[in-house]
Amino acid sequence: MQSVDRPPLYLVDDDQAVLDSLRFMLESCDERQLRCFADGERFLEEVDLRLPACLILDCRMPGLSGPEVQQRLKAAQSPIAILFLTGHGEVPLAVESLKQGAVDFLQKPVQLAPLLAAIAQAEQATQSAATRLAHRHAFERLTPREHQLLQLIAQGHKNQQIASTLCISVRTVEVCRASLMKRLEVNSLAELMLCYAAVNGQP
What b/e sequence results for 75-90 when a residue is b if at least 16 CB atoms lie within 10 Å of its CB, and e otherwise? Predict the structure, then answer.
């Protein structure tokens, strides 16, 4: 059964035969939203780049190439996860795309089993990226006092130590801490530390 929160899947390739083949394969076993584009420019214009999605992207196309689309997505801080399609002789280009953050690359003609496996990886990657971005945006809205508090919590300080460091009461620390967790939408210290680690690029 289709999950309502599964990210949409986009196909971008200037070869209509490739688009038709991929659409046929995927529609036979995957009911999610699926959209096809013949070029990178139209994809970038019509898709909401802020939302999680999986993108199957041809490396070489007229106009914007696949790597150029990838750079546009990176510049926009998009959580969209990319799977590159490559032809023969394009493996070095695909390897470079992996270094730039692509999830995987698939060589044409694509077989269904490895394609579905790569899409499953891309789903996890785009959801993780969207979560990191949401955390980062929430962190950007914290007050200076909340930033101070978070750093002290991350360093392992208890409420009494934090109160002493910031020259405030323990009760004020408790109130600020509750406000901080509500703003970041976390319910425990463990979740707070995972959020902090994600924003700071820690594994």
Answer: eeebbbbbbbbbeeeb
For residue 60, CA distances in Å to 12, 27, 88, 179 come to: 11, 25, 11, 49
- pLDDT > 70 fraction of the chain, expressed in percent and rounded: 92
Q: Report the 10 Å Cβ neighbour count for 181.
A: 18
In the chain, the amino acid numbered 11 is: L
pLDDT in tens, 54-78: 999 998 888 898 999 999 999 999 9
Other Cβ atoms closer than 10 A to 34: 16
Tokens of 164: 């002493």
Query: Is residue 104 within 8 Å of 84, Cβ to Cβ?
Result: yes
Of 116, 103, 1, the closest CA to residue 52 belongs to 103
Given this model, what pLDDT does residue 117 score?
A: 93
Token readout for 106 is: 């698939």
Give the helix/strand (H/E) hosting 36. strand 34-37
The rounded distance, in Å, linking the Cα atoms of 81 and 74 is 10
C-alpha gyration radius of the chain: 21
Contact by Cβ (8 Å): 53, 7: yes
Place of tokens 């910031």: 166
Element (H, E) at 37: strand 34-37
DSSP string, 86-132: E-TT-HHHHHHHHHTT--EEEESSPPHHHHHHHHHHHHHHHHHHHHH
Strand partners, 12: 37, 57
**Do 54 and 10 touch, CB atoms closer than 8 A?**
yes
